[in-house]
Amino acid sequence: MTKVIPAFFINMPELPEVETIARVLREGAKSAEDALAGRRIESAEVLWPRTLANLTPQTFTGQIQGQSFQAVTRRGKFLVFPLSSDTLLIHLRMSGDMRVEGIQENPLLKHDRLVLNLDNGSRLAFNDTRKFGRAWLLADPQEVLGGLGPEPFDPTLDANVFMEMLQARSRQLKPLLMDQSFLAGLGNIYTDEALHLAKLHPLRLSGSISLPEAEKLLAAIRAVLAEGIRRNGASIDWVYRGGDFQNHFRVYGRTGQACPECGAIIERLVVGQRGTHICPNCQPKPD
């Protein structure tokens, strides 16, 4: 029997959730007519000024007006919108979400923070209950994205490169994997899932990882992320909805339940101030 994770597990969207949102915005929620590419921004409304990370509302609205969406992409946990002149970046943080909808038939929602009105009578709205999300409008997106580590699916990231990255640091595995300057896109959920699949303890020091272990860990990271994307991410709270990966977790949020690999009881511990879930049998604690 599948188990839905309770609503008190609050996590920001990770790579699969952000990729799912990007895909919907890129392809259109219902049809290609809803896709953002080619749409011109007629006007912008900044409903929460602190949503803007680098510009005043007046500068932002004046600068983005008249620009058109060229594409919708993702870098790490950032949504990336190349425009005709600049690039719009949005980080959803804890509670952000985005939607495209018709202006006439849909009133703005209570927690909408930024709205872009488009030339076809629709709007792109950034809704953010907790107000932690941020938006940047930049001529050079590398000003923000340049500090990110490689993408997990980067074809140039092979086991040898990954082992060198791990061994160049002497950090516990879980905090390191969640460090966006080391590897872009992983958060609490998918790190726990990947470490379990790779049979590595989250407290293991990265400098001790061998080449076979690095190869296994990289494959596990890619596997859980790919499955998360296939299932449209994980819907584990009131923030992000639509995916069902939460019904297929190996260890995350399953404290006291049986490990799907060996049947041992899953335990919860705190690593780097984050709740962490492991199988004590599959993931032996390092000396």
UniProtKB/TrEMBL annotation:
The keyword Zinc-finger applies. SUPFAM superfamilies: Glucocorticoid receptor-like (DNA-binding domain), N-terminal domain of MutM-like DNA repair proteins, S13-like H2TH domain. Residues 250-284 form the FPG-type domain. Residues 13-133 form the Formamidopyrimidine-DNA glycosylase catalytic domain. Pfam families: Fapy_DNA_glyco, H2TH, zf-FPG_IleRS. Its cofactor is Zn(2+). Keywords: DNA damage, DNA repair, DNA-binding, Glycosidase, Hydrolase, Lyase, Metal-binding, Multifunctional enzyme, Zinc, Zinc-finger. SMART domains: Fapy_DNA_glyco, H2TH. It catalyses: 2'-deoxyribonucleotide-(2'-deoxyribose 5'-phosphate)-2'-deoxyribonucleotide-DNA = a 3'-end 2'-deoxyribonucleotide-(2,3-dehydro-2,3-deoxyribose 5'-phosphate)-DNA + a 5'-end 5'-phospho-2'-deoxyribonucleoside-DNA + H(+); Hydrolysis of DNA containing ring-opened 7-methylguanine residues, releasing 2,6-diamino-4-hydroxy-5-(N-methyl)formamidopyrimidine. GO terms for biological process: base-excision repair. GO terms for molecular function: 8-oxo-7,8-dihydroguanine DNA N-glycosylase activity; class I DNA-(apurinic or apyrimidinic site) endonuclease activity; damaged DNA binding; double-stranded DNA binding; zinc ion binding. It comes from the Bacteria. NCBIfam families: fpg (TIGR00577), PRK01103.1 (NF002211). Monomer. Belongs to the FPG family. This is DNA-(Apurinic or apyrimidinic site) lyase. It comes from Pelolinea submarina.
